[in-house]
Amino acid sequence: ESDFGADSECGEQEVIPGKAVMPDLNGRGWINGGHRLIKFSNAVDTLSPTEHIRDGDTIVSSGGMFEMGFFNPGNSKNRYLGIWYKKVSYGTVVWVANRDRPLNTTSGILKVSSNAILQLVSVVDTLSPTEHIRDGDTIVSSGGMFEMGFFNPGNSKNRYLGIWYKKVSYGTVVWVANRDRPLNTTSGILQVSNNGILQLVSVVAQLLDNGNLVIREGSRIIWQSFDYPGDTYLPGMKIGSDLSRGIDRQWTTWKSLDDPSPGQYVIWMDTNGFPQIFEKRGSVLHMRFGPWNGVRYSGMPSLRESPIFGNKFVINEKEIYYQLEEVDSSVVMRMYLNPEGVVTRMIWIDRTQSWLSILAVAPTDSGSPYGLCGPYGTCNSKNFPICSCLDGFVPKRAKDWKAGDWTSGCELRTPLECGDGNAIGFKRVSGVKLPDTRSSRYNLSMNLWECEMECRRHCECTAYANLYVIGSGCLLWFDNLMDIREADETQDLYIRMALSELPSFTTPESASNKKKNMIIAVVSTLICLVLIGLTLAVYASMKKSRSYLKGRVHDFNEDTIGDGPEEDVDLPSFSLSTIFKSTNNFSTSNKLGEGGFGPVYKGGFSQNPGKELIGGVLDDGREIAVKQLSKSSRQGLDEFKNEVRCIAKLQHRNLVKLLGYCIEGDETMLIYEFMANR
Q1: pLDDT tier at 277 (50, 70, 90 boundaries)?
Q2: Which intervals hold domain Apple (predicted)?
Q3: 10 Å Cβ neighbour count for 667?
Q4: Would you give the distance in Å from CA 347 to the centre of its chain?
């Protein structure tokens, strides 16, 4: 018998269940298996404690996307319990239960125990304290003479646990366990415990259409295969730690295409410092993904969100994990970690009936091997040599660097002394993947200035940066900066170094003089600008007051109507301020009435310079009527000019005489001779 719960992991392999020996879909060898769909409940995607899967049986998810059963991978003769695609890419395995404990027989049975542990068993005649019998299961004596299980006697609907003949007189009961305590359900489970209590539980296993095998007790999920990934990552899976349950979700390769047992490459999330994802081969680090920058992992531009999937990173007191979220459910996507440690993201293309690789990341890519350039070294695969020191740093072992061994890294050209805080500064470095954060500290609420002040307070702080690309949070490094690579990143890194290494460095004396000179220059420049601005403003105001009316009259007289030029209109144009005075600022007491084009005001007006207006009436007694064109009127400037021309030409003793006009800003007015009603 083989139990699997926290040890179970998954894998990716091609398998074609079938009664005959058949080739696999990708030419990986030959496999053997049985294919029979068993309907042990109304829903074929669930497995209750009264049910089981035998080698040759399968269950299918409700949407038909995934199938679960026993199979042989590649040329192996071992039997494994796995989940594979059924609707698309039929036979591609995404999860294996007993990858490191294969069965060497085709009599395997999958059961769900009362404590929610999946069990693989062969036919046995013993029952240990860790095992149980469910309604529907039986155990048989070694010689096959007797069998034990649950049954209904005669026409009764009650269930009893009993022993009966199997080899002869099949079904003749010889012993009943609960003869005075019958069960009225088919969910009975017999457990061998110290006090011999018969317990009933309601536990089912269900294969979901996202490829997740879950064990539920009622509506509560108490175990799921997504917590134990293998070499295939499906949307909805998590990589990281469940701190409350002590589960570390790691991504592991198969040992080979024929052997799904755990291989050499592992991808996992290291939660020391600020969490980040690593890939290792055995105990040797090969690649680092991260850290998380609020959108994706630093140095991984290919993981930007797309219409197909989204990224999710969660960090709290219960869980720390990364999750690939499905955005478009019509697209079938998976990520595959092959036995050589290469990560490939693939989508299924219905037209070609094949997987399309849209991203591949290999641990042997130039610049990708962890720490290739050593501390304070930066890697650029487009350069030769690919390693160089950051500005302000020099190779620690120049001879080794010349020989192409960069692992010793770099050191500060000018050493730092901890006590002199005024002698240090921070060099901004852009366009790089942020260094390893396992020796870092982070704060979610600090801004960049607070982050720098915090780093200055600690001599051992080597660098700082915003935690996220949006400019929030604080990330502090307290060790050598490792695994830096040039990348298309906008997150700046600030590295601690001597002030003399910074481009703007000056001596304290020259810095003081420079500061004074800068202040004088700035103040002088501001004064000059203010004086120039005032001069221009005064000049513009004077010019406007002198030429505004002249420009208006000129524009009016030069205007044309129809096909040819009009004669100049010999009428004076008067300023708005003059009209204001003549009408007492358009006082309501001066208002004569109002027509369709606007109100008419009474006022005093003089054609002779120097005469004063007294109470809106000239000192010689002459009075005027001012017609103010309403701003809401539909009459435009052209119509107004036409009116002026027409009235000016129609001089008659029975017509009111037009004395002039005013066009200023958005105001247009006609000035008439005032005639009182008779």
Answers
A1: very high
A2: 418-498
A3: 12
A4: 20
What pLDDT, in 10s, does the model give residues 356-415? 988 777 765 545 688 889 999 999 888 888 999 999 999 999 999 999 999 999 999 998
Question: CA 202, CA 406: separation in Å to the nearest integer?
Answer: 61
Cis amide leading into 49 (omega within 30): no
CA–CA dist 189, 648 (Å, integer): 114
Strand partners, 22: 31
Q: How far is CA 501 from CA 326, 413, 423, 472, 622, in A?
A: 48, 8, 10, 28, 86
Supply the pLDDT for residue 542: 63
Contacts of 580 (CB under 8 A, 6+ apart): 586
Nearest CA to 256 among 4, 71, 10, 13? 13
Radius of gyration of the chain from its Cα atoms, rounded to whole angstroms: 45
Tokens 């690919």 correspond to 386
For the stretch 86-105, pLDDT in tens is: 999 999 999 999 888 898 87
* DSSP string for 282-346: TTEEEEEE--B-SSSBTT-GGG---SSEEEEEEESSSEEEEEEEES-TTS-EEEEE-TT--EEEE
Token code pair at residue 520? 């004088």
* pLDDT range class, residue 316, cuts 50, 70, 90: very high
pTM, rounded to two decimals: 0.57
Over range 179-187, report the average pLDDT: 78
Instruction: Output 331 or 118, whichever has higher pLDDT.
Output: 331
Tokens of 594: 């109002």
C-alpha–C-alpha distance, residues 522 and 453, integer Å: 28
**Helix, strand or coil for residue 117?**
coil
Nearest to 73 by CA among 21, 22, 15, 120: 15
Best CA proximity match to 277, nearest among 323, 239, 318: 239
